[in-house]
Give the backbone structure.
Amino acid sequence: MIKLCALLISFVIVCSAFCGEEVKRSPDSEYHDGVPKGKVEKQPPWRSKIFPGTERDWWIYVPAQYDPAKPANVMVFQDGGGPVNVAGEMRAPVVFDNLINKIEMPVTIGIFINPGVLPPADNAEFPKSESLLNGEIAVAVARGKSREEAEKSIPKTASRLPRMNRAFEYDSVGDRYARFLLEEILPEVEKKYNLTKDPAGRAVCGQSSGGSCAFTVAWERPDAFAKVVSGIGSFTSLHGCNAYPDLIRKTEPKPIRIYMQDGDHDLDIYAGSWWHANQDMAAAFNWMGYDYFFLQGHDGHSGKQLGMNFPDAMRWLWRADPVEGKRPEKADQRGVWEVLIKGEGWKHSYMLSETDLGGAVLMRGCDVDDSGVPYFLKNNKGDNGAKIMKLNSDGSAAEFADFKDYSGEIKFGPDGKLYGAAGDKIACFDKEGKRTDYAELNQGKGVFSLAFDHTGALYCGVLEGHITLINAKKEISTLTAKTGDHSILQLIPDQGFMAIIDRHKSAIDSFQIGADAKLNNGEPFYTLQSAEGENLVYANASAVDDKGRLYVACKNGIQILDQAGRVIGILNLPLRTSVTGIAFGGPNFDTLYLVTMRGIYSRKLNARGVLSCKPPVIPPKPQM
């Protein structure tokens, strides 16, 4: 059954809607005497856990020059039964033999994987549909049988069909397929072969939906795969890959090298135009300064052009240059380029020790004092409980105060004291770390988020309740604005409006702040971008700068929204872990501090943060 499905897949991929110009096959796609041949090993069918119940055929190619003492590069091919075929369009084993022999590409192990198939639970047979029978009869008649003969010879029943997982695995966005490679396939290959861990030595290749899948793998895990070959890539609305041109333009460039191919007679169907989709991808790569090459032709949805040019594609992909892009000269200052500084990436500011990590230490929240020094929560699940820590300039952290009953954020007030959510109370810590209880809400629900304005009014976000206001006279009132699960409260720089950020929703409500500090005229003004393949945004922290931009830490990065409520850029996270706090700090408040479950990172930006507990700052007028 798996073989039959693979044949059907191959047939779909190589069917061309238009026959383009004839191109002679490169000598590097042919066998030659004296060239050492690698070996292709057919593997037992793989049964996946990440794609539960599925089975798939797969092969490993090992070059003759492979030395177990030296880590080999690795290249993964989707729809592997096609490219591993030495008589097919791509002929990857033959090309690898020739180019490795000529030292025009590194020693590379090829992994060729077919998409998964989930067989039915039993072999019970049922009547065929009329459309299926008529189709089979028509095929038989076309092959020379009479209709009467065809009707008699064709069985009227059939067993249930398998579930073909190809579209789900290849066209879906998100990290599932990357995890499948990293958690299942590569570890299995590494049992026999020494593979490199360097992302620059790892590539992914595919055509059609396999091509968009190849890009998705690198996009989700550039720390593991830095090189992509995509032929006739399905960057259309089959399962969400049509979102990539937009995301590429907004997201800080990732260290990926991309070789693309498509023809101007490619598919144009309900899901979109393949040719225009690939043009949009190339335009986005160009605008963001990616290291990419776009081979354009006149074929339809065919693997022919990429197959004919595969040796040159390998030379370009595996050249020794570092995998890095560059800021294009024609890019304007809008978007993520507004805040990026060349050469300034994320740096370790404080990392938990191995002892801490073994003790399940969590770090939450972040705010800075008048000097821009960060304070954060460190929570040991043992007897010591939570502590407020102060970050030192040398990368160490000093204990500031015990805070065992914390329930959410810590924020500095206009008086220079540090305040923290402690169940239904608000705790206050003076500059020496001595604690007093500032106020008690008595609502029966825990406080999570805090936001001061410059007058000393304190807005408290109650878990799944309403925002509670404590004014400078300590008078407590409940506002009509509601909060969800761990909502974040963020005043914009001029303190005329407040953003209420629900951790799960893409819409951020904006409320006008009245003269009485009450919240009025709310509407879902800002719109976050959910992570690819996710319905939830997982927004955990926020900050603002003096140009009125809102920074929100989400699962897919630090999203930057302009004053009009639009995402204009996304900063990549330094590692794949939850962000629990962000704040602008440093002497000039131009360093963004990012608190994660494992440590604190910092990055200098072309931006200056604003503290809401200080006098309002009027930003420039919005660009509409």
The CA atoms of residues 5 and 495 lie 61 Å apart. The radius of gyration is 29 Å. The chain is about 20% helix and 30% strand.
